[in-house]
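Bug #2210: token dump truncated for Cleft lip and palate transmembrane protein 1?
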Amino acid sequence: MEPPATVGGGGGGGGGGARRPQQQQQPGMGQMLTGIIRIAVFWYFASKFFGPKRSPTQSSDQISNLFHKGEPLDMWLYLSEQENFNDFGSERALVWQETNIPYAVWTADSSRTLSLKYYPSEALKQNGSLYAHVFFARSGYPPDPKDPEYQPLAAFGRTHPVVIYLPKSKADKKKSLLGNSQDSDGGRDSEVAKDAPVDDKEDGPVEWKSYWKPNITINLVDDFTRYPQNAVPPNIAPYLNIEPSTGNYYPTIFFNEFWLLRDKLIPINETVNELPLNLEVGPISMTKWQLFLQIDQSFQIHRSYGSMLEGEADELKRVFLEGNPYLLAVTMVVSVLHSIFDFLAFKNDIQFWNKNKSMEGLSAKSVVVNFFCQLIVFLYLLDNETSWMILASSGIGCCIEFWKIGKAMHIEIDRSGKIPMLRFRDRESYAKNKTKEYDDLAMKYLTYVLFFLAVCFSIYSLKYERHKSWYSWILSSLTSCVYMFGFIMMCPQLFINYKLKSVAHLPWRQMTYKFLNTIIDDLFAFVIKMPILHRLSVFRDDVIFLIYLYQRWIYPVDKKRVNEFGFGGEDEQALVSTDATEQSEAEKKTN
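Reproduced locally. Full output below:
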């Protein structure tokens, strides 16, 4: 690590005045790396000589796998309603038996499959339990401990539930506010109502329902690592089956349910007479096993923190299962670009309004309307129990939109009444020119259109859709109008540009990033499966942005008009000419 720092320092010293900043930075980086190396060396020797002494037995005692690679194994799979199984002689419980399975070897003979039908008992239909008991043994040895030929070091097994219990769906609290007997969803809603619990209270007891796992995949982990006896990695220790007498471990049995999605589960009730069961046994590498465990653990952490809703993990897995790998790679790259452009648009939007000194040519009323639209979306998400991360993102967006109002208008607190009120006053750069007149004219006609569309959609939603309350109906109607007709909010700015015959006042850098995101959304409209009407609605923003580009092309640059930072083109030219004059005078004095 030392030579690169020395070379960098020497290169900085050999230059002239233009390289002096680099000369100051390079020795700083070299000193930092040298300090890190010194700390690492000091820590090594301190832990070597002053650390706790390990006993020779502690460092030499290691545990290893009791079986060898490629060793033939016999397998027995039993299905029983008892969690503790010892009825090895029951032919009814034995559903699958295989012989001479090579352990941890990837050959055509190492994987076995079987499909069968299972006929549930009456106890299983009444939310009963069922367990799969799988046993492996060296070829020729029995798994039954009562058998005279049984060898404890030659057989091992594991138990896994075949039936999973999930909470019953809550009763649908949505209803027709007009009291109609027939709803838009018809039969589906009646089935939900029948299946829902009678108690409609949120604090009532949670009802559980049993579901059948149609696929059971048994994997033997290819693990022959020699672990220190008292230092087994914490992610491995819970799965190791230690043999008490020798201290070594049996091969790890992993019931692989990573690709078992929730919609593949089969509900069990009194009408079910037979259930499909697909069995598979085969090897799995150590890396793949740990990868599955880490991903599942990551999903659980995200669900516990509220950043991932129930079922979103299955949707992510479904993309890998059913998607084209090339299309998936393109989607991932495009998603990263979408996030980058979104961040850049957000950054430039903040910079624009933070440095903006003039509202000439900008629509102040559009900023106010955007704030109310963002507030409506936030209240709608809050009413629908959305995850806290999405709520936080929407709430921050509301705060930013309100901050932009303070940049576009003067906000004052009126304390003349009993309750302090906020008063909004137009800025002088906005009120003393034609911008306010054109903005009022555009917003006047736009209000008529939006009011008509909002009333029509609200009436339709009230008649044909179901809602939890009148408050939910108002929020959902307003939110739907924001989603469907929100692009109309950009029309006043188009009108102002048309009247002023100029686009020099617009934040073009931010709009460029938004336009790139719109193009990416168009790509997703063809990639992702969605209704035709929703797919067509994606292209509505394209029309607005194309009009913006057309206006930028036809309207010439006005040197007299100030930009978003309060400077005009003539000011910049005067500043450049002044700097050139001062530089020439300085050169004359030097000569």
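Output looks complete on our side. Residues 136 and 582 are 91 Å apart (CA to CA). Marking as cannot-reproduce; reopen if the truncation happens again.
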